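Appendix B, Record 12. Input sequence as logged:
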Amino acid sequence: MKRQIFFCCALTLAALFGGCIKNDLPYPVVEIVFEAVEAEGLDGAADINLAQRTVTLPLLETTDIRNVEISQATITEGGSSSVAFPGTFDLRTPLYTTLSLYQDYLWSIVATQNIERYFNVRKQVGAAVIDPVNRTATAYVSRSTDLANVEVTALKLGPAEITTYTPQIEGPTSFETVRLVDVTAHGRTEQWRLHVEQTDVTVRITQCDAWARIVWLAADGLSDTEMGFRYRKKGDDAWIPVTDVEIEGGTFRTKLSGLQPQTTYEITAYSDADESDIREFTTESEPTLPNSGFETWSTIGDILYPYAADATPSEQYWGTGNPGSMTLNKLVTTNVKEPRPGSEGQYSAQLESQYVSVLGVGKFAAGNLFTGRYARTQGTEGYVDFGQPFTGHPVALRGWVKYNRGKIDHIKGVPAGLTLSKGDPDQGVIYIALGTWTAAEYGGTDQSPVEIYTGDVKTFFNPQGKDVIAYGELVLENSIDEWQEFTIRLDYNSTSIQPTHLMIVCSASRYGDYFTGSSDSEMWVDDFELIYE
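Logged structural output:
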């Protein structure tokens, strides 16, 4: 499972307690987790979520979900599971198991499986509606279609290559009434109901998601016709045809680029001579990053901050681990007069990983820079709030970076399933995420809602979390001696959801949140920019 977030530690010395030794000492708290799970017929690696105590198995569509063979399950050393592994399990519902050592922890193993299904007929309008729960498939055709003579062009209702259909439905078929078909896979047969219904609508826009310079469009039309889109600025007379339209049966879609921010456009879809209603949309603005050249710094007390001394809380955009590391007179992030070539500024940010200690007591601290704030220190652990309010849809983060890659000399922990040893090369990381996180759920503030507590891995940021809309990262696996420009593309899982917050994190040691990395690793960053096309 991916967990790539920096750690900025704050250290204080613990008081020493004396007293008599008693024979009723409590058991230590050792949380038992799944470190790795392997199974037959997976479409990728298992996803282990420590916060939710779940293991998700992505199944190939040809895998029998009722008979999933879990070949290996590795848990924390010394722990036991109430369910014996290896074994074969029906994962149509979650498999629950209790992992135990001194305490009990309830875990669940769930399966996800995407089976591609379609039902296509000649002169179909849009895509068929597939209901796998009720086992129905409904295709729509124009009013002029003769339901007694409908040509079926494609049918798939079960796993590829292992599914049979009885009777075979091919070519011209009567759909004046429902057609029944037996679908057999894995030795089991399900009966499906096929419908073909007439509709008065031959073309309609089904998606119009406008960003700053891009709009994502989709429409239903009549298959086997010429389909596409036309657009224009509101107030213009001439329509502009859209090129590069992707057509699949009776659906078509496109990504229309080259638009102007904060501008109103009109769009229409067509299928031969038929046209949809005209729809309006207005493109978004292009929010920028405050202090993106890292020119503004201030020293308050003895702590260096990447914002002005008189900045209001809402203007304190970037944060570092300096408030924590300065408890032991160390700065993990500083400004240096070493800008990237061609920069209009005179500073860049230097992120220096180091071991912070007094009298031999301390912890490893990764050099870091992030959108958000260092919240507070508790003992030798830190609370960090990530994110800043943001509602745009950038497609990438561009910036400049240098990196000195050291060898790992401090290891306390690593993500589940990963093995590191002292002497292994460290890695740096820069990542960007957009999401709809809330303080109520993630423990931070309305401004910076995602709170990470370094003493609890269950709070660590999960790029695959349910409230993540988009994510992109750059892992630095080699030293970069000279300034190098980078571009991190954002991978969106939805084009229509509006983000509420933006998260950018830079760390000289990729696993610094686990107190693991190299005290020789350093990163320099400069001139960040959000790209919108």
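Residues 132 and 157 are 8 Å apart (CA to CA).
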